[in-house]
Amino acid sequence: MLRRLLLAAAASAALTVTLSTAALAAPGSLMIYTSTPNEAMTALVAEFNKAHPEVKVEFFRSGTTEVLNKLQAEFAAGAPQPDVVFIADAVAMQQLKDDNRLLAYTDAPLAGFPDGFADPDKMFFGTKLIPTGIAWNTKSGVPAPTSWKDLLGASAKDQVIMASPLYSGAAVIHVGTVAAQSGLGWDYLDKLAANGAVAGQGNGTVMDAVATGQKSYGIIVDFMALNAKAKGSPVDFVYPADGVSVVTEPVAILKTADEVADAKTFVNWLLSDDGQAYMAKQGYIPGKPGVALPPGRPAASALKLMPVSNEVLSKGVDENKRKFSDAFGG
């Protein structure tokens, strides 16, 4: 705790990004950096505190790319603030692992989870499955999509919005996955841009545009569209027949964490039956088989995944971001 206070003071002039007051945890608080949407994270922390009221939690929330940029600036200043990182994709976590930033948690409760859901060295752990597919405005009069290539047709001209990999971790995975597919690739993404598709920022921007009718189609994570539909928004969602990309929203403890015991308590709860059931209640597909699914969600085993390795995704991040910026702007 003392280390955090002293380093935070010393680093204030050195950081190249502005630290919000919410990102400076009070002594004794568990500090989490996350890309989970603010409302969902607030609710999740409240549920966690029902089981563990003794753990004080604060969090900083932004898109995965901004979270990582902020964290890298703090590393450079010698003042990393978070105890826990809880972000969209495993590729970003792998980068933190490769930089020797993560703490191995060998006793994490992984019983019941499928092989490969956790890092083999137990440095980060998937918590859920978040596929990216296609949402559309049901009042717009456009046909319901069935495949990614439907977004290249006349009905989708100037009517598609997608999250940007320059901001969103899920979009990093989606663009990298599509780029790696022999039937899609950058040829498809370039055609999508030529058909008038635009990039928003994160998935929330995409959801707002589709729900309000500014755009007819959105490339978006499933839970946002299906949760909005359940609340009466004029949207629907499809998992394209040609496959989906998926992020697992992994969680990890930093080597520099002050509150290691509380961090492990938080990880334990996320991986527990209660934590998995609550994430399903929030509209996510739980990572643990056997936990009841949210309405309208397929079981993990029923998802058709577009094949791609983490190695390919990791190696292609910078090049895919450059190409995306050239094609879509931003």
UniProtKB/TrEMBL annotation:
Protein's UniProt keywords contain rRNA-binding: no
Signal peptide extent: 1-25
Listed Pfam families: SBP_bac_11 (PF13531)
Coiled-coil positions: none
InterPro entries referenced in this protein's UniProt entry, alphabetically: Ferric-bd
Protein name: Iron(III) transport system substrate-binding protein
Keyword Cytoplasm: no
Family matches, as SUPFAM superfamilies: Periplasmic binding protein-like II (SSF53850)
Keywords, sorted A to Z: Signal
